[in-house]
Write a structure and sequence with these properties.
It is a single chain. About 4% of the residues have low confidence. 78% of the residues lie in helices and 0% in strands. This is MFS transporter.
């Protein structure tokens, strides 16, 4: 038994379990939550209130988790506790009907799941395997989780999605137990004196604060796009089944980008890559805002939606690694994700008001303006390119 465990520790199979089932759990809970709540008789206002808890709770929990991770350097334990807590709370969620209880549970579950994302990103970059070969497992996991949730809702029982959440949380925890944690190559890169640098000193770095502002604009626009793009497609006359297919394939488009990340992510500067992310998002939103037929809109969504958001996710890791001291990496990534959660709340509320007053196309032109501002601001960033994050 001991020799079997030794072979499992650090194996690629442990990373398969970790990433596939972590992103599976994220998708199986979040992808059809709105449909589940509507089926439970919740009004649109109640539904929006309950789902807003994810962003509000993430703003608080993400920085705390990142700080705790940098202080203890125990990613496997922290991730396991968060995942198992989310899985068990999911069963409580399935038995609850009170709006306030569902609000509380949704916030706890989604913030616990979201808090693991920076851990997964850092772990993928520090393992002995290439970032792309690990992170692509999450793409497959998310796509399969969304499909499994939809199948359960239609053919088994709506509450079964919470059983799948618990099962996937347990399997991902088993995977985390076998990974190398942060003991790979990135942790051996020489850092500035950790004893003399506060873990929160990066919050006084103007360059990091400018990056946070750019990330705020990108994540808010991207998050609003994730929510409103299905509404845009149905408004153009596409049936819901076709919309689901478009979203499924738009997710899979990111696979080549992740698999080949080691070919270009460390060679190109963070400023250039961030600018490309904003450029792709700007082009995407302009297409959504001006085109009135579904075909060009679908083409833009397939080519640019997941590509831009995935590029941003990788660029965030690269920029943080090149700006922030290594002992504060997880804390900084968690702060970035907390700011992203805040921007998502604000952009969603603005989006609803603009779309109701004008149109969905008009709101996408507002998002295009935000993307243009972000593109101009990211040109002011001063980012080195000394840390190799994605190459073997």
């Amino acid at each position: 038994m001991k020799s079997l465990w030794n072979r499992y520790r650090g194996s690629y199979f442990s990373y398969i379990l970790t990433y596939f089932f972590y992103y599976f759990s994220m998708a199986v809970f979040s992808s059809v939550l709105a449909v589940y709540l509507a089926g439970q008789g919740k009004s649109a206002q109640e539904l929006s209130f309950i789902m807003s808890a994810a962003g509000l709770f993430s703003i608080l929990l993400l920085p705390v988790t990142g700080w705790l991770l940098d202080k203890t350097l125990r990613p496997r334990l922290i991730s396991g506790v968060l995942l198992l807590s989310a899985g068990m709370l999911g069963l409580v969620f399935s038995a609850s009907h009170s709006v306030w209880v569902l609000f509380l549970l949704d916030g706890l579950i989604m913030s616990a799941i979201n808090s693991i994302t920076p851990i997964c990103e850092r772990m993928a970059a520090s393992s002995r395997y290439r970032y792309g070969s690990i992170r692509v497992l999450g793409t497959f996991g998310y796509a399969c989780g969304a499909q499994a949730a939809g199948f359960a809702m239609e053919h088994i029982a709506p509450s079964f999605i919470f059983v799948m959440l618990l099962i996937s949380a347990v399997l991902s925890t088993v995977g985390f137990a076998g990974t190398q944690g942060f003991s790979g190559r990135q942790d051996h890169v020489p850092e500035r004196s950790k004893a003399s640098v506060s873990r929160l000193s990066f919050l006084r770095d103007r360059n990091f604060l400018l990056f946070l502002l750019c990330a705020f604009l990108f994540a808010g626009s991207s998050g609003a796009n994730n929510i409103y793009s299905p509404v845009l497609l149905t408004g153009l006359g596409l049936p819901s089944g076709t919309v689901g297919t478009v979203l499924f394939f738009s997710t899979l488009v990111e696979i080549p980008l992740i698999l080949w990340s080691h070919k270009f992510m460390d060679r190109l500067s963070g400023k250039l890559l961030f600018g490309l992310s904003f450029g792709m998002m700007l082009l995407q939103f302009l297409c959504y805002g001006f085109f009135r037929s579904p075909l060009p809109t679908v083409i833009a969504m397939l080519l640019l939606k997941a590509t831009a958001s995935t590029m941003f996710m990788m660029v965030s890791l690269k920029i943080v690694r090149n700006i922030v001291d290594g002992s504060s990496t997880s804390t900084a990534l968690s702060v970035v994700n907390a700011v992203n959660a805040l921007s998502g709340i604000l952009f969603l509320n603005v989006g609803g008001a603009v779309a109701d007053a004008l149109s969905m196309q008009a709101y996408y032109l507002v998002l295009a303006a935000a993307a243009l501002v972000g593109l101009l601001l990211c040109l002011l960033l001063k980012i080195g390119n000394t840390q190799r994050v994605f190459s073997a």
